[in-house]
Fold this protein.
Amino acid sequence: MPAPLNPFKKALSEGETLFGCWLGLANGYTAEIMGTAGFDWLLIDGEHSPNDLPTIRDQLQVVSASDSHPIVRVPIGETWIIKQVLDAGAQTVLVPMVESADQARELVRACRFPPVGDRGVGYAMARASNFGQTTNYGPTADAQICLLVQVENRAGLAALDEILQVEGVDGVFIGPADLAASLGHLGDMMHDTVQSTIMDALQRISASGKAAGILSTDDAMTRASLDAGARFVAVGLDVVMLAQAARTTASKWRDGLK
Ligand SMILES: O=C(O)C(=O)C[C@H](O)[C@@H](O)CO
């Protein structure tokens, strides 16, 4: 029995555009609710949300049971954490702050078993192999791993062309908030300079044949990103959705009675 097909990786390779949502509430219960929404993918955020490996595992379990594909963003691009989330069953990994082709090549190796990579072999007792039931997991796993790297600062932009040449990187995600900060526009990702830089980067990624990704909650920016070639696009964040809905409802009645 081979490693399970990665439908997200397959869809990207077939040129589909996939819409997703960020999960920052860091628990399985709300992740299960988000799994009913109908997004193509859900991003379990290990970088800017209070997640640890057990909460990431819980969310992988419930999202995997939904029609949405789970993507795990690791807090940093290091072998030890990539190994752990892959063993926990993640097949698509997003790595922040990638700044060079050498770093990208190290990340590819971290996602692959020897001899081509250096991912540790412990899947016999891991969720990734369905606890050993996927008898041929080892030799078939690499092909189903989707590695997405984030370019989100000046250094990454300067190395983008070289990063795009790294075999094993399936997609490049532009982090708009960090990129804005790196360009000197902290908190203002809608600044003209930031927007033009984002769209140029998305076009370059798309032209390379790799999948381009972005996060945007601004409709005009989302449409511009799609026009620039973005094909995995996060269009919402669970934390923001909850906070905005709660504040709106409270204000509607509290302020409405004044
Ligand atoms: O730089 C960015 O923007 C991202 O990488 C996405 C953010 O980290 C996400 O937490 C939304 O703010």
In short: The CA atoms of residues 38 and 68 lie 7 Å apart. Residues 192-208 form the longest helix (17 residues).
